[in-house]
């Protein structure tokens, strides 16, 4: 029996997990790129931040797009032959990359900032008012005008 490591799927999902959608395509298990490294942080109830290590890239070399609940970060560095030089060791990759993240419904990108070689992409979950929990009053026939209140809490 073959076991699957689901951690690459969980790392690439922000907000509510879409496991069934991701499990429909088993080829995604082999597509876990490791460059550039990144963190996903949760700040508060509905705020998230993706931080990617993009040393050597400037704002002009990076592009961020959101389409169909997918956040895609691309980096393409234009090589300047005049600056190539003779390297004895070249450990800073500066290679082109494309990293995609599946976003849950109602996750919006609120901004991006590049500082000290780290690209920060801020996200927020904006649940529409119609989908938020609401309080429903329950009236009992024998309570002579007394009203009991049932509160729905978000999970």
UniProtKB/TrEMBL annotation:
Highest taxon listed in the record's lineage: Bacteria
Domain SHSP positions: 29-141
Stored InterPro entries: A-crystallin/Hsp20_dom, ACD_IbpA/B, HSP20-like_chaperone
Keyword annotations from UniProtKB, A to Z: Stress response
A Pfam family assignment: HSP20
Family label: Belongs to the small heat shock protein (HSP20) family.
Protein name: Hsp20 family protein
Organism from which the protein derives: Aquibaculum arenosum
Lineage, highest ranks first: Bacteria, Pseudomonadati, Pseudomonadota, Alphaproteobacteria, Rhodospirillales
């Amino acid at each position: 029996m073959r076991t699957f490591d689901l951690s690459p799927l969980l790392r690439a999902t922000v907000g509510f997990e879409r496991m069934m959608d991701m499990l429909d395509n088993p080829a995604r298990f082999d597509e876990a790129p490791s460059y550039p490294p990144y963190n996903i942080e949760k700040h508060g109830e509905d705020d998230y931040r993706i931080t990617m290590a993009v040393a050597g890239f400037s704002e002009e070399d990076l592009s961020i797009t959101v389409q169909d609940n997918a956040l895609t970060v691309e980096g393409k560095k234009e090589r300047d032959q005049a600056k190539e030089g003779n390297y004895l060791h070249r450990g800073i990759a500066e290679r082109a990359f494309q990293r995609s993240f599946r976003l849950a419904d109602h996750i919006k990108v609120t901004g991006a900032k590049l500082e000290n070689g780290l690209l920060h992409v801020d996200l927020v979950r904006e649940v529409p008012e119609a989908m938020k929990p609401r309080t429903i009053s329950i009236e009992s026939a024998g309570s002579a005008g007394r009203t009991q209140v049932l509160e729905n809490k978000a999970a």
